[in-house]
Automatic annotation (TrEMBL):
<dbReference type="GO" id="GO:0016020">
    <property type="term" value="C:membrane"/>
</dbReference>
<keyword id="KW-0964">Secreted</keyword>
<keyword id="KW-0134">Cell wall</keyword>
<dbReference type="InterPro" id="IPR002963">
    <property type="entry name" value="Expansin"/>
</dbReference>
<dbReference type="InterPro" id="IPR007118">
    <property type="entry name" value="Expan_Lol_pI"/>
</dbReference>
<dbReference type="InterPro" id="IPR009009">
    <property type="entry name" value="RlpA-like_DPBB"/>
</dbReference>
<dbReference type="InterPro" id="IPR036749">
    <property type="entry name" value="Expansin_CBD_sf"/>
</dbReference>
<keyword id="KW-0325">Glycoprotein</keyword>
<feature type="domain" description="Expansin-like EG45">
    <location>
        <begin position="41"/>
        <end position="155"/>
    </location>
</feature>
<dbReference type="InterPro" id="IPR007112">
    <property type="entry name" value="Expansin/allergen_DPBB_dom"/>
</dbReference>
<dbReference type="GO" id="GO:0005576">
    <property type="term" value="C:extracellular region"/>
</dbReference>
<dbReference type="InterPro" id="IPR036908">
    <property type="entry name" value="RlpA-like_sf"/>
</dbReference>
<keyword id="KW-0961">Cell wall biogenesis/degradation</keyword>
<dbReference type="Pfam" id="PF01357">
    <property type="entry name" value="Expansin_C"/>
</dbReference>
<dbReference type="Pfam" id="PF03330">
    <property type="entry name" value="DPBB_1"/>
</dbReference>
<dbReference type="GO" id="GO:0009664">
    <property type="term" value="P:plant-type cell wall organization"/>
</dbReference>
<protein>
    <recommendedName>
        <fullName>Expansin</fullName>
    </recommendedName>
</protein>
């Protein structure tokens, strides 16, 4: 019995150590007001975050985490870390999953660029999301975080912008890893055209595709590849968004 108990404790300790290894240390503040309305828009280009599928549980990432927009759409599980300085402002036992929708830029008027300065993993969360894990009077809390799989409602969405000379597409509501690693577009009269990241979650093709129906292919940062055939009809106009019935698992 004692030997079995010892083996169980050893296995449990190993599992707990493995789980702890998945977490990273960071810090978190909040912005956007009590209703989070001022978090709409942002450096990922999603615009209205409700329409784009992200809602109020969102965060602006520090430069280190934002990775020049490559992290747009990723999901992070965040909990307050009571073991560190500032932990008295934690709400014990609570955690929240947020989507990356914006950049928190360095403030070089502060030492080392402030909380969002270079090298600092920091989340400037919507106030409603932050208040799930922290007491508002604290203002800033130490956190533990890990990237997790994104669960979205509905399919991937493609929001069309650009001009007659190029196409700019904001790819939204991505499940799985949450972020786009590569994208292609195909017109009725073209083959597949490799797109490149313009900024945030906006992908561009230097081709005039006005008047053509459009298909897309997307590979997430998790490595899953899906094709979205004939999702945009030939009568599309700039500023329109088209939804699909497919989404990613990883």
């Amino acid at each position: 019995m004692a030997k079995s108990l010892m083996l169980f404790c050893t296995a449990l300790a190993a599992c707990l150590a493995l789980a702890a290894a998945d977490w990273s240390q960071g810090t978190a503040t909040f912005y956007g007001g009590p209703d989070g309305s001022d978090t709409m828009g942002g450096a990922c280009g999603y615009g209205n975050l409700y329409n784009a599928g992200y809602g109020i549980n969102n965060a602006a990432l520090s430069q280190t985490l934002f990775n020049n927009g490559a992290s747009c759409g990723q999901c992070y599980l965040i909990t307050c870390d009571r073991s560190r300085a500032g932990g008295q402002w934690c709400k014990p036992g609570n955690s929240i999953t947020v989507s990356a929708t914006n950049l928190c830029p360095p403030n070089y008027g502060l030492p080392n660029g402030g909380w969002c300065g270079p090298g600092r993993p920091h989340f400037d969360m919507s106030q409603p999301a932050w208040e799930h894990i922290g007491v508002v009077q604290g203002g800033i809390i130490p956190v533990l975080y890990q990237q997790v799989t994104c669960t979205r409602q509905g399919g991937v969405r493609f929001s069309i912008a650009g001009s007659q000379y190029f196409l700019l597409v904001n790819i939204q509501n991505v499940g799985g890893s949450g972020a786009v690693g590569a994208a292609w577009v195909k017109g009725d009269k073209t083959g597949w055209i490799q797109m490149s990241r313009n900024w945030g979650a906006n992908w561009q093709a230097l081709s005039g595709l006005v008047g053509q129906g459009l298909s897309f292919a997307v590979t997430t940062t998790g490595g899953q590849h899906l094709q979205f055939m004939n999702v945009v009809p030939g009568w599309w106009q700039f500023g329109m968004t088209f939804s699909t019935n497919r989404n990613f698992a990883y």
